[in-house]
Amino acid sequence: MVFVILLSACHKGQKETGDCSTDSLVLERVSYHQPDLEVDLGVGLWAWPLPMDFDSDGDMDLLVSCNDVPFNGLYLFENPSGPGEPMPVFEPPVRLGPGKKNLQVSYVDGNARIMEQGSEYLNFSVNLYNQPVEIYPAEKLEEAHQKIRFSLWKMVDYDDDGDTDIIAGIDDWVDYGWDNAFDSSGTWTNGPLHGYVYWLENEGGEYKNRGKIMAGGEVPILRLVNQTGFYRICAYVVYDSFQFVVVPDPMVV
Questions:
Q1: Phi first, then psi: what are they for 8, rounded to 5°?
Q2: By 3-state DSSP, what share of the chain in percent is helix, strand and coil, each rounded to 5?
Q3: Where are the domains of the chain?
Q4: pLDDT tens digits for range 172-202
């Protein structure tokens, strides 16, 4: 109802000119009646939170990227509380630029790193979107799926070897369709909703696709003792199966 009223209303300039045609319609954001009111922080549909110390003042601010309407944009909610405040009240949002879908934040050596599918935005707090660097071609993972809504990429040392790997989570809605697939008896008539997690291993700065990680799987590096010392068991995940390779570990007891 509110949306219909907004579409039907004229703004002040239109009333003065008498032109209320849809071609000249300008929507205006409705303000809260109480500007000093403190409320739960909200942004809008498809909002991607990016907690980070954006202004380098020692506390955690909140960036939110919203690629939908009516609140499209990348917004900074500054934390004015200072370090150590467990329940900060953020400042009103400041729009820094356009919103993007699927932005993710990772923390590497204490630094916030911002990624989207296959790419990183270098020194994001200074450059925002102006310095993208491709890390791995996203289409090499996404081409296996027909109906993607989310493609979320994060940095993590997954195999615990001291460098930064990438974990990519991708969904596929082709079997699920949408939420209206119940018949008159309440039985679901479509297929399941699929979600996949890929491990891209960092080998000397080059990322290699090690396939899908099984749900409930363990971190694929284990160490065990045998009579000759330590051995490393590498469980490389290849799509829907595990392949185990045993190699000597230079560490000894």
A1: -90, -10
A2: 10, 40, 55
A3: 1-35, 137-253
A4: 999 999 888 999 999 999 999 888 999 999 9
